[in-house]
Design a protein that fits this description.
- With 546 residues, the chain is an alpha+beta fold.
- The protein is 29% helix and 21% strand.
- It is built from 16 helices and 21 strands.
- The protein has helices spanning 5-8, 29-36, 42-53, 60-63, 90-93, 111-124, 147-154, 189-199, 270-284, 295-302, 304-316, 359-371, 392-404, 413-416, 435-448, 523-537, and strands at 72-76, 94-102, 108-109, 129-131, 137-142, 169-174, 212-217, 229-236, 240-247, 259-265, 321-322, 337-340, 346-350, 356-357, 377-379, 385-390, 418-420, 460-463, 477-485, 491-499, 511-519.
- The chain has a six-stranded mixed beta sheet. Strands 1-2-5-4-14 form a five-stranded antiparallel beta sheet. Strands 3-15-16-13-12 form a five-stranded antiparallel beta sheet.
- Helix 8 (189-199) packs across helix 9 (270-284), helix 9 packs across helix 11 (304-316) and helix 15 (435-448) packs across helix 16 (523-537).
- The longest helix is centred in the middle third of the chain and has 15 residues, at 270-284.
- The chain starts with a helix and ends in a 9-residue tail after the last helix.
- It binds iron/sulfur cluster.
- Iron/sulfur cluster (SF4) binds at residues 421-423, 427, 429-430, 463-465, 467-469.
- Iron/sulfur cluster (SF4) binds next to loops.
């Protein structure tokens, strides 16, 4: 029988778009846009053209593509319900205002920097500001006309929006208590700073297959399991303290826990090893299909051993040192509360509701920190704020002041362990509302469950769509926004529930219980029921995820 075209067609005729295998011709519009013009070039057009001529002058390829490399996304046009998100064209969803993200590598700011972040919000962002779960500050209602003025405000103080979004190395997560924590053996800050200095804004790395997320910390307080690359503190029996290398974590619609490469990396080699891994991703990453373009797919196909071999042989030109796995804590560390630093002073971690603050609040936190004698404030990957370097005698006043601002250091377990993504208020991909919903649910649970306070935190992560920006799959109760049918047959906002996920000792994904979908209105009832059942049936020290 003569072969049909289906028989003769190679299974992967186009490959998967890996540059290293010769697939340099763009295979989709995103790749075309990046090839046509380095996305970092958009900055000059914003400064010289768009900020002067206004929103309507913006080239659509810049608006929906390259603007992201400057930390800018158009925000969702108000009034479009989540059921229509998937059906509309991008231009129908675009508002003429922007979400702007300031990357804060390592998560730290000074008082002066925090005041500037507050000022950006009050002057240009209608007093909006969210602490994201990647240690960024995110604004809304930004006009393109104001973007250069914002850069003029923050950049002289050492902050930037460059590569805060886009297919490039995003903000580098660092420990919120780097340099002060008693338990820390190596402060990773020099490695974070060197990566930013050498590689952020580097045109050789500004066209990656997709986003690339980094976490570097001695402690396990940066959700290292779900980053594209992580360096986690570990003691080597011969070489001493250094970092264990993990690659290929990520959530979204195809979640993966990062894999250890079994390599121990000393602090001063972290930037070069990081650079090698990014280059492997740039050159071998899959560019053909957007949904397979994260490094986690490469690691899943190659395996950790082969990935390490390519990294060593083709990029580093040397072998890495084998190393042990770090010891895993019961749960990731969120730093909420008051803790002693190694220098005898204290750090204070407080919990804004779902990371929502405002420019006014940020400025007030800067003032309060200064009055307490601190010049170091940190943001955490759990949407929290930490004030460092507080002397004992300043502690009470600071705690009282932060409490007045709605930032308690001893929040309820619900306030402490609830996170929410941006959701339908501003995000164009959202199907449901999240931030305000989370705030109301927390208030509700504080009343309903006053008699059942579990001695283990139970995390609740609200996400507006399957993209899992607030880490749906690694929460005790993870919620993925979707339209569901209520008991009267109406299509309403709701969630698919993922139960029993976690990081730390319980690192793994929650079970997506078939058919377990709840409406947004049912959420407090549902959580109350689950928690009461857990409390009633709990066996000794059993954790929620067990
Ligand atoms: Fe937007 Fe979805 Fe991410 Fe939420 S999870 S911020 S709705 S993309």
């Amino acid at each position: 029988m003569a072969p049909t075209s289906a028989d003769t067609k190679p299974a992967r005729a186009k490959g998967q778009g890996q540059w290293k295998l010769g697939h340099r011709e763009p295979l989709n519009p995103n790749e075309r846009s990046k090839k046509d013009d380095n996305p970092l070039n958009v900055r000059a057009r914003i400064e010289n053209v768009y900020a002067k001529r206004g929103f309507d002058s913006i080239d659509p390829a810049d608006l929906r593509g390259r603007f992201r490399w400057m930390g800018l996304y158009t925000q969702r046009r108000p009034g479009i319900d989540g059921g229509r998100t998937a059906a509309l064209e991008p231009e129908e969803l675009d508002d003429e205002y922007f979400m702007m993200r300031v990357r804060l590598d390592g998560g730290g700011v000074t008082v002066a920097q925090l005041r500037a972040l507050g000022e950006v919000s009050t002057r240009y962002g209608r007093d909006t500001a969210d602490v994201t779960d990647r240690e960024n500050i995110q604004y809304h209602w930004i006009r393109v006309e104001d973007v250069p003025a914002i850069w003029n405000l923050i950049e002289p103080l050492g902050m930037q929006t460059t590569e805060a979004c886009g297919d490039c190395p995003r903000v580098v997560l660092g420990s919120p208590v780097a340099g002060v924590a008693d338990a820390e053996k190596v402060d990773a800050t020099p490695a974070v700073d060197e990566i930013v200095r050498r590689f952020i804004g580097d045109r050789e790395l500004s066209n990656l297959p997709r986003k690339f997320k980094t976490a570097i910390s001695w402690q396990q307080d940066v959700a290292h399991e779900v980053n594209d690359i992580s360096f986690v503190g570990v003691e080597h029996p011969e070489h001493g303290p250094g970092f264990d290398l993990w690659v290929g974590g990520g959530l979204s619609t195809n979640p993966k826990i990062a894999q250890r490469l079994g390599a121990w990396v000393p602090l001063d080699e972290v930037p070069d090893v990081w650079h090698g891994v990014v280059q492997v991703f740039r050159d071998y990453g899959y560019r053909r299909l957007r949904h397979r373009a994260r490094i986690k797919f490469l690691i899943a196909d190659w395996g950790a051993e082969e990935f390490r071999r390519v990294l060593e042989d083709e990029y580093l030109g040397r072998k890495l040192i084998d190393g042990p796995a770090p010891t895993t804590p019961d749960r990731p560390i969120d730093h909420v509360g008051v803790y002693r630093q190694k220098d005898g002073r204290n750090y204070v971690g407080v919990a804004p509701p779902s990371g929502r603050v405002s420019g006014t609040t940020l400025t007030a936190v800067a003032d309060a920190a200064e009055r307490a004698g601190s010049d170091r404030i940190r943001f955490t990957p759990y949407q929290k704020i930490v004030v460092l370097d507080v002397a004992d005698e300043k502690l009470d006043d600071l705690l009282a002041e932060l409490n007045t601002l709605g930032l308690p250091a001893q929040p309820s377990t619900w306030r402490r362990s609830t996170m929410a993504c941006t959701g339908i208020e501003f995000c164009k991909l959202a199907i449901v509302e999240t931030k305000e919903r989370a705030i109301r649910v927390v208030e509700d649970l504080e009343k309903r469950l006053a008699d059942v306070v579990p001695d283990v935190p139970i995390s609740l992560h609200l996400n507006g769509c399957p993209n899992a920006c607030a880490r749906t799959q690694v929460a005790d109760i993870g919620l993925k926004g979707q339209i569901v049918t209520d008991s009267d047959g109406n299509q309403v906002e709701g969630f698919q529930v993922h139960l029993g996920g976690g990081l730390g000792l319980d690192a793994g994904f929650g079970r997506k219980l078939r058919g377990l979908k709840i409406t947004s209105a049912e959420l407090p009832d549902y959580v109350e029921r689950v928690v009461r059942n857990f409390a009633a049936q709990r066996d000794g020290e059993e954790r929620f995820a067990q």
